[in-house]
Amino acid sequence: MTRKNLTLLAVAAIAALALLGLALPRWLLFLCTMAASHGIVSVGILLIMRGGLVSFGQGMVFAIGGYAVALSVTHLGISDVVVLMLIGTIAATIAGAAVGPLIARYSGIFFGMLTLALSMVLYGILIKSTAMGGSDGFNIPRGTLLGMRLEGGTGDYILYVLTIVSTGLASLAVAIHTRSARGLVTQAVLGNSLRVEYLGVSVQSVMAMNFTLAAALGGLGGALTVLALGHIEPTFSYWTQSGEFVFVAILAGAQSVVAVFVASLALELVRSFSNLYFPNTWQMALGLFLLAIILFLPAGIGSLWSRRAGGKSPEPKISASEREAAR
Questions:
Q1: pLDDT single digits (tens) 58-67
Q2: What SS3 state is found at 54?
Q3: Overall pTM > 0.90
């Protein structure tokens, strides 16, 4: 699929989802907002997984994006949701760019454990900090858009549309990136990192860049989640939150970005209904659902439509300038 066709398809999907939101009840609108804001974090994990690594600490950038938004509201008096969304994304990107070159030196389980350790260090700092609300966190008021307070059903819908548009455009950027020379080098790293080094491409710089991009997506997800919930707490950085992001990425498979959001929505729906109808054993119901997916769709939810497509997609042509850019 060409870049132009991919862009047109993404714009059409965003418009269709925005219109669909008009027919959804408020509870489902909220679940879709949460699924999209969490799903974009798992898209970032897929970027890292394409290079053969797994980050178990994406809760760190998720929390940084969320706390950047919450503190901007309470201390700086900023209420515009678009500005807050940008603040959360930029804050997480800076954090990712700072630690990316360090953790990119490691591979395998060492990379995963280091990211997990960083996330838990942040959790320890947040839970002990009274300025950050301590273990209970703190609430923030609903944001505004063009001076209008986002309250009631209209506010929920506007926030839903903002989430769909921002995560949709971010996913489109990821899809374009994975088809670029730099993105294809990541796949080569997974196949044979030593050969990639012999070709003159720094594996460390490639993985550091992927981690920084994943951090930006994590910050975006954290910002959108806080804007929807109106609450922030240290559990955003806890290991269970990071594990949930990883599981969604595995549940979706590596076939497509769309599968990540489908998996995230499925997880939110199953968890919500299990908690409603099986309040004492909802974890077991959720576990059975996840076990069924693993048994019957070992390649992930994305394999449902990639299998129907059949065959291998043609490899994109890479120009000499793109090869040089990958270096």
A1: 999 999 999 9
A2: coil
A3: no
